[in-house]
Amino acid sequence: MNHLAEIKSLKKQLYVVQKARKKAESALGKKTRELDLAHRQLLQIQRPAGRHATVFNNIPADIALFSPEHEYLFLNNHAEKEAALRQWVIGETEEEYCRVSGKGLAVAIRRIYYFSEAVKTKQPQEWEEKVRDNKGKLTYRLLRLHPVSHRKGGLNAVIRVGFDITAKKIEEDQLLQTAKHHLELFNHCEALICIHDLKGRLLSVNPATCRCMEYSEDELTGRFIYDFMPENRRNEFKHVYLPAIRQNKTAGGVLSILSKTGRKIFMLFQNAVVDVEGAEPYVIGFSLDITERIYAEQHLLYSKKVTEQASHAKETFLANMSHEIRTPINGILGISGLLSKTPLNELQRNYLQLIQESSNNLLVISNDVLDMEKIISGKMQLEQLGFKIVDKIAINIQSFIYRAEEKGVAIIFQNTIPADLVVTGDPFRLSQVLNNILSNAIKFTEKGNIIITTRIRSYYECTTIIECIVKDTGIGISENRIDEIFEPFVQADPSTSRKYGGTGLGLAICKNLLEMLGGSLQVESVESKGSTFTFSIPYTLTEGNASEPEPPVVIDYLSLGNKKVLVAEDGELNQFIVKHMLESWGFEVSVAADGMEALRMIQENSYDLVLMDVQMPVMDGLTTTRRIRQLNDQTKAGIPIIALTANVSKGDSENYIEAGMNDYLSKPVNEAKLFKAIEKNFKGTNTKPIDMNEILTGATESFHNQRLYDLSTIIAVSGGDEEFVKKMVKLFIETVPANLQELNAYLNTRNWDMVSKMAHKLKSTLDSMGIDSLRQDVRTVEASAKRNENLENLPALIYKINVVIKNCIAQLENEVLALN
């Protein structure tokens, strides 16, 4: 029984074992089949890799094939250049490969991380890898993992593709660095930088702009620029700036804006449009805060205005002073001149001589003050005349001999300059300098002598430097005062002016005149022993004869016949003197005390000439002259007018001529000069003014058959641009008739100076238009009018100019402008 039970138990156990074995065999068979399938799949993966290894090795990218367990199955030669390492790595892990290839553990860890993500998600993974090789060279690669799944959803393998992006990465880094620099420049630049759209809305501003305008960046961006501008300037921004920058792509200028606290800011800006493909264009604006400069300029302009007003006030004062001094001097000299023509005894003649000398001294003082003002203001004019320099110096010295003899002082003239030497320069300024120095030498020398030495210091090509030394035995100058004597209104000692008189301007004028002439002035002096003044002047050597002074001519004051003259003068004494002179010449004289009365008398009466004082009450001489030139009666409007003036500054003569005066004389009036001026202005005077409109009505037709112009010069300049040629022709047609009207008006008033200037103005215009038939005529008019020569020929020449230009304009309109 026991044996049966044991056998039964053993059978039972055998059954369990057999059942377990069958189950194990079944599981082993399944696992074997799975391994076999995996093996076949792996072979399927490896087989194409092996078949296409050549292709993979020639692809310019890193290619690697992995098992799902991250073991290397394939590696192309771009991914690993060493063949032995490529063979060894098959079946190895990423960690082992990175260790052996020297890429490091950090690279392996990152690759393992992305590989696990690819396996887990079965999605591609991408990252950048920075690797430094054994030589220290840094490379960048872009790696991509692509999981390969089989049909049942399992993972067959993973493919990794890598690209060398080192060059691109370096370029990107450089761009990032540049962008960083630009951002730093934008943020730290003291210039005001902004970006706005084409409507003027701010898109971005730099910190400097925020600081200047006292707003935060958020307060500025998104708002329009004109929101921060003064009300009266907003339309200018909208309707001028914005259209201009849209059309021209650039714009610049000055912009005024208001800060947050209301402070007005001026910006000098230069803006440009930036076009971006696929996006809206925008404007980059660069500005500088020039507020301080604007205010400084405004202050300078104000200061300039104040200075000009002060200068004008000074000129007015000097003009008035000159007038106030010269007017009584004119009276004194005029009366003394009339008195000298009456029977006088010896004592009376001596008294008269003292009066005349005192008056002339006053005139010298007035002239010195005015000369100094001319020099300071740059209004001194210099002449260029040929003259014998020795003769000029000798004449000046001769005039001082009698004064020196009266004091018992000897004048010694030592000259080594050739007597026939002719030079070109300003003989009058030489006389002025020499007279001043000689006058001082005689004034300050009580005994002894004055030695004048003249010599040629040097020659250079066509230039010579003349040196003159004036040595006296006078009171001398103390060493500490020598530098001061050339300052205006300064004398060597205050007591000098009390004892010897003078204004202290003489030497200052001499020094400045010599410097204007290109020369110099030096002084050596010992107090109580005398002084030596040395001055030098460069001159141009001249071949031929000097401009000799005209020999004195006996004037026949009755030669002009009976003329009717109006004297416009407010000073009774001057009225009396001039009236007496003119009446002694046989003239019929009327007197007007002011400009308004003179204008009325001319309208009511007929006169041959007017002597017009410049400064008169009610209406001055310049205004009166202009009113006369505007009279409808052409005969009265064209009457010759000679200005009588005490103001002799440069620029005044131009004002007189511009106002319509024919000539001018400075006071005190010299009888001979007055007669010459009147005689000159009567010469060639027609009683009837020339009416060019009347003449042109019957203009000759002789010019119609020939072309009067030649546009070859303008065409050459235009470079073939026909529109340019037409514009020049239009400009000629529009401007020249007005110039002709002015020329004709000045001819009618016998304003020869302005006739010359208008002819000069027309000259270049006619030459450029190729109007050769007038080439010589317009130059003859210019030269004759300027020299006051052959004036009787000018009306005919100007008539011809009018006719030719009128016909030339008609031809240009028909032949040039009519062409399409």
Task: From the alpha carbons, calculate the radius of gyration and give it in angstroms.
Answer: 53 Å
Global outline: elongated
Percent in strands: 15-25%
**What kind of sheet is the major sheet?**
7 strands, mixed
* Uncertain stretches of 5 or more adjacent residues: 41-46, 495-501, 547-551, 684-702
Distance between the termini: 145 Å
What's the β-strand tally? 22
Mean pLDDT: 80
How large is the count of helical segments? 27
Kindly state the percentage of residues in helix.
40-55%
Helix and strand composition category: alpha+beta
Key structural traits:
5-stranded antiparallel sheet; 820 residues; 19% strand; alpha+beta; elongated; 7-stranded mixed sheet; 22 strands
Describe the protein's topology.
Elements: H1 2-51, H2 53-58, E1 62-66, E2 72-75, H3 83-88, H4 94-101, H5 105-121, E3 125-132, E4 138-149, E5 155-164, H6 166-188, E6 192-196, E7 202-205, H7 207-213, H8 217-220, H9 231-248, E8 250-258, E9 264-274, E10 282-289, H10 291-340, H11 346-377, E11 385-388, H12 389-407, E12 410-415, E13 422-425, H13 427-443, E14 449-460, E15 463-472, H14 494-500, H15 506-516, E16 520-526, E17 530-541, E18 564-568, H16 572-584, E19 588-592, H17 595-604, E20 609-613, H18 621-629, H19 634-637, E21 641-645, H20 652-659, E22 663-666, H21 671-682, H22 692-697, H23 712-718, H24 722-748, H25 752-768, H26 775-787, H27 794-817
Helix pairs in contact: 4-5, 10-11, 10-16, 11-15, 12-13, 13-15, 17-18, 24-25, 24-27, 25-26, 26-27
